[in-house]
Write a structure and sequence with these properties.
7 strands, 6 helices, 36% helix, alpha/beta, 5-stranded mixed β-sheet, 202 residues, Cytidine Deaminase, domain 2
Length: 202
């Protein structure tokens, strides 16, 4: 789960997923990540889902737990996928927001929410669920894993996601500190941003 630590900025994108079919009692759970040539979301849509798809009439619920939110191009691909798959419902949890000030990425996330996709920042219960669900039994110790120190970054990214979805200016600043360690700070300049902060409840 170190790839999901919101206080750092790794280059890779990891995607934990659950696929639940209306005709099956047990969900399909696994993970994938990006390659040098393909984003994790595209790999899921064009490879993993196609291999799992059986009866197109089955209702399908997909949940993604992503280390980075989708970029603008991936958001466009997701919209096309959902248009072609009307029986599919998608929920996305993200640990971080990818290039959060790039307008194409911000527009992409809004466009997904506008067609019914749920996008949320991972909170502590979601981190705990992913730990219990996706980490191999022999590797996990519940006493050793409780990401309480994630709370400040969860709040910051939750605030920024609210700013994006409400189409108001970015509230989050990320700069490089000593040894290239990222430094996060809030930039609250108006009442709209204050309201977004009130809406961010990690």
């Amino acid at each position: 789960m170190e790839n999901y630590d919101p206080s750092v900025l790794p280059k890779e994108t990891y995607l934990l997923y659950e696929i639940k079919w209306s005709s099956s009692k047990r969900p399909w759970q696994n993970c994938c990540h990006n390659s040098l040539t393909e984003h994790a979301e595209i790999y899921f849509l064009e490879d993993i889902f196609k291999k799992q798809r059986s009866d197109p009439s089955d209702h399908c619920s997909i949940t993604w737990y992503m280390s980075w939110s989708p970029c603008g191009d991936c958001c466009k691909a997701i919209r096309g996928f959902l248009k072609d798959q009307p029986n599919v419902n998608l929920v996305i949890y993200v640990a971080r927001i990818y290039w959060h000030k790039e307008e194409t990425n911000r527009q992409g996330l809004r466009s997904l929410v506008n067609i019914g996709v749920s996008i949320r920042v991972m909170d502590l219960p979601v981190y705990s669920y992913c730990w219990r669900t996706f980490v191999d039994d022999e590797d996990k110790d519940e006493d050793d894993y409780w990401p309480r120190h994630y709370s400040p970054w969860i709040m910051l990214y939750s605030l920024e996601l609210q700013s994006i979805l409400q189409n108001i200016p970015s509230c989050l600043e990320i700069s490089s500190g000593e040894n290239q360690t990222p430094v996060f700070s809030l930039c609250i300049e108006n009442d709209q941003q204050k309201r977004a902060l009130t809406s961010a409840n990690p």
